[in-house]
Design brief:
Low-confidence stretches: none
Order of helices and strands: HHH
Keywords: Ion transport, Membrane, Transmembrane, Transmembrane helix, Transport
Mean pLDDT: 88
Main location: membrane
Organism: Candidatus Nitrosocosmicus arcticus
Subcellular location: Endomembrane system
GO molecular function: calcium:proton antiporter activity
């Protein structure tokens, strides 16, 4: 289980560290401004999701209730981004 969690978390972080610079370079090539200014809601959801995933994966085991918590948090974030401008 530790190997699977390590692969999942490191893969997600590697994608994030690769995609953001590519998007910035692509925006420069297209002549579009892409500032890295995030709203407070975006920052709160980012830190809350990191916090939640850390504490759920910290034990190395999972159950259905933790899955329900993650799916519920995902739905809450999606609804928040839908209703907040």
């Amino acid at each position: 289980m530790d190997l699977a969690l390590g692969i999942a978390v490191s893969s997600a972080s590697q994608i994030a560290l690769f995609v953001l610079p590519v998007i910035i370079v692509a925006a420069m090539v297209m002549g579009v401004s892409f500032p890295l200014i995030f709203t407070p809601f975006e920052l709160i959801t980012m830190f809350a999701s990191i916090f939640l995933v850390y504490f759920i994966t910290n034990g190395g085991r999972g159950n259905w209730f933790q899955g329900v918590i993650l799916v519920g948090f995902f739905i809450a974030i999606a609804l928040g981004f839908y209703f907040i401008k």
